[in-house]
Amino acid sequence: MSQVDNRQNTALSMRTPRARVKGLGASGHGAGHFWLQRLTGASNALLMLAFVVIIALMAGRTYPQAVALVSHPLVSIILILAVVSVTIHMRLGMQTVIEDYVHSHGLKFAALIANTFYAVAVAAACLYAIIRVSLGGLA
Amino acid sequence: MAMSVFHRITGTALYGGTFLVAVWLVALASGPRAYDTVAWFFGSLIGRAILFAYTWVLMHHMLGGIRHFIWDAGYGFDRDRRLGLARATLIGSITLTVVIWAIALLVR
């Protein structure tokens, strides 16, 4: 009386038995991607207008003046929001581009991982720098 | 169709462009020497050309996104509106870029 292991071959698929029973595929997640892409698109539109003004104000500033501008609480908060919104948006956008154009399984998998790594690295570097400047002591 | 592909191309360009934003912010956090080097680069002819192109690409992608919002809401699918929106995106992005740079250069 040995039990039959009727699970899918987990070496080939990462889907759990429960996911197979429910048979919903990616449903419940696809709309999340779509919605978050639109939501961050809308917040980007607002934040980028402020970002363009900040960049224009940065031009021609000396180092202490530049530090003073970025460490202003309003500027810091806008920059932090912009970095979070933009990096989420660009990761989702690039994911769509990769899924549409890269068809080789291995290459697609590698590209999707690299995409997430890049987005997170850019976000971490920007957030670290903004907070470092905001906390003072630089100029 | 061409404009839809262009939305992806501008998005990809902006994706790479965020690296420059990270370089700029990290330089600012690193100290005056690093910042002056980066500020010198963005003030140079090549740097300004990159920033100008970046502005246009950003504005184009933003207006292209608004165009997609209009479509998401279920409007603007007929031929004339589609062409009108494509034209508005192109003209609008060029206008916004010129206005932004004119203001930025005049204010200084």
TrEMBL record, chain A:
Subunit structure: Part of an enzyme complex containing four subunits: a flavoprotein, an iron-sulfur protein, plus two membrane-anchoring proteins, SdhC and SdhD.
Membrane-spanning residues: 45-63, 69-88, 109-131
Pathway membership, UniProt: Carbohydrate metabolism; tricarboxylic acid cycle
Locations listed in the record: Membrane
Top-rank taxon, per record: Bacteria
Predominant cellular place of this UniProt entry's protein: membrane
Range of residues in the leader sequence: none
Keywords attached to this entry: Electron transport, Heme, Iron, Membrane, Metal-binding, Transmembrane, Transmembrane helix, Transport, Tricarboxylic acid cycle
Cofactors: heme
UniProt membrane topology term: Multi-pass membrane protein
InterPro entries xrefs: SQR/QFR_C/D, Succ_DH_anchor, SuccDH_FuR_B_TM-su
Naturally occurring in which organism (per UniProt): Methylorubrum aminovorans
Entry protein name: Succinate dehydrogenase hydrophobic membrane anchor subunit
Role, per record: Membrane-anchoring subunit of succinate dehydrogenase (SDH).
Keyword Nucleotide-binding on entry: no
